[in-house]
Specification:
It is built from three helices and no strands. By secondary structure, it is an all-alpha fold. Helix 1 runs antiparallel to helix 3 (126-159). The chain starts with a helix and ends with a helix.
Length: 163
Amino acid sequence: MTRVLLALLLGLSVLVIWQRGSVVQAHRAADIALAARDRARNERDAAATALADANGLIAAERGRAQAANDLAATYEKEKNDAQKASDRLVADLRAGNQRLHQRWQASVATAELSEAAAAGSQPDGRADDRIESAGRAIGAAAQCDAQVRALQAYAMLCSGGAR
């Protein structure tokens, strides 16, 4: 009976030692799983932050692109308005509704004196040329003004000074 008890005690001891090893391995595996879970959560949080940052940058860039498109549309409208104003001025000058500035009128008077001295049969295209020149000068100045305003607005947009 002692032998049986001794064998039983030895068997129980082996079972306890084996169980203890299994418990230690289970705890080690649980610790590894927890560490892996924490790493995965950190990676997930980092990816979510990166995604939010990227979405913010995309939204900001879309806003800047829309603002740039609005500036370009404003510039084109002002440029077209300048061309229309130039065309209107030329038409008014031809119809006699507008008069040229005195320094331009001096060339008209000189041309009339020269014309009196010249043969009357030659048509004078200089009056039309002066009208066209005045219209081109006014139109070019207005278009340049529109371009300067558009470029300044775009520079402010790019520097973050205007939204």
